[in-house]
Amino acid sequence: MKYSGIVLCGGLSSRMGRDKAWLPWQGRPLVSHVVEKLREAVDEIVVVAAPDQKLPSLPARIIRDRAPHLGPLAGIREGLENIHNPFAFVTATDAPHLTGDFVRSMLSLNRSAALDVDGFVQTLSAVYSAEAGAVATRLLEAGRRRPLDLLEKVDFIKVDPDQVPHPESVRGFNSPEAYLEAVRQNDLDPFVKLLQESHPSQSLPIGTLSDVLRAASINPNEFDVHLDEKQIEGGLGIPVGPGETIRITPSGT
Q1: Contact, 229 vs 201, CB < 8 A?
Q2: What does the mean pLDDT of the chain come to?
Q3: Which part of the chain is CATH 3.10.20.30?
Q4: What is the distance between the alpha carbons of residues 198 and 200, in angstroms, rounded to a whole number?
Q5: What is the CA radius of gyration of the chain?
Q6: Which of 1, 17, 35, 97 is the most buried (most CB within 10 A)?
Q7: For the chain, how long is the longest CA-to-CA vector?
Q8: Domain 4-174 has what CATH class?
C-alpha cells in the first residue's frame, strides 16, 4: 500500500518568536529536515503552509491553508483533501527527532492512530485516514477545532510508545529555550557569525538574539540588527541557530 505524509508548517510560532520552518537544524531549515525524514517512509508529501508563508525549495507539494486562523485541525483538513493515498502520517514542523522507522511503523497499522504518551495523545504526530478530511470539515463548521475531536470521530487507536521504534519522534519544541537546548545536544558546531563594519567577524555560541549581542558587548538600542539579511524589529528573545549570520549596522543606515 502507498502512503502520504503531511507537514503542518503554517502556525503562528508565537512562543518561538520566528517561523519554525526556517529554524536551522543539522545544516538545513527544520522543515527541510522533516520532509526528508518523511520521504523515507511515504510516497508523496504535502506541506500545508500559511497563505503568504515563504518556504525553502522542498520535494513536496505546497498547499496554502484556506483558514489558518482555525488552527491545526484546518491544516490537517487541507492536507487530507490533497492526498492521493488512503492514509497519511501528519506531523508538525517542529519534529526534529522524526525517523522513517517510526513513521513506517505507525502507517503499517492501516488505520487512524496516535501515540499515547502518559495519557497525552500526540495528535500532531499521528496517522489519519483520507476520509477524515470530510469529518474535519464538519467539525470545523460546528466550531470544534481540536485534532483530538477528529481522531475520536474516526475511531482511532492509541499506540503505546513501547510498541513502536523511536517513540521520541514525537518530541518537538515550542520555545526558544527548548530549541536551543535541543540544538546544543545534537549539533557539532553550535555557533553563529556576527558581522560588524570595521570589526573582524566573530563566531559566538548560539542563544537568543539578546544572548548573542550581550556576548559581543553590543547595545541593540544603538544599532540595527539583521538576521540573515532580514532586519529584526525588536524580538530580542528569538533564537539564533547554528550557521546563521547576524549583521550589525549603525541605526538608520
Answers
A1: no
A2: 95
A3: 186-250
A4: 7
A5: 20
A6: 35
A7: 64
A8: alpha beta
- Give the C-alpha separation, 174 to 17, whole Å: 10
pLDDT for res 136: 98
Which long-range contacts (C-beta less than 8 Å, at least 24 apart) are formed by 204-211? Answer: 206/180, 206/239, 206/240, 206/241, 206/242, 207/180, 207/239, 207/240, 208/176, 208/180, 208/236, 208/237, 208/238, 208/239, 208/240, 209/235, 209/236, 209/237, 209/238, 209/239, 209/240, 209/246, 210/236, 210/237
Please give the Cα distance from 199 to 193 (Å, whole number): 12
pLDDT band at 164 (very low <50, low <70, confident <90, very high): very high
- Per the structure block, which three cell numbers stand in for 109? 497499522
pTM exceeds 0.70, yes or no? yes
- Can you tell me the distance from the alpha carbon of 128 to that of 183, in angstroms, rounded to the nearest whole number? 30
Return the C-alpha cell found at 243: 550557521
Nearest CA among 33, 30, 35, 65 for reference residue 49: 65
Closest CA to 134 of 89, 78, 62: 78
d(CA 238, CA 240): 7
Round to whole Å and give the CA distance between 211 and 165: 37
Q: How many CB atoms lie within 10 A of CB 120?
A: 11
Domain 186-250, what fold?
Ubiquitin-like (UB roll) (3.10.20)
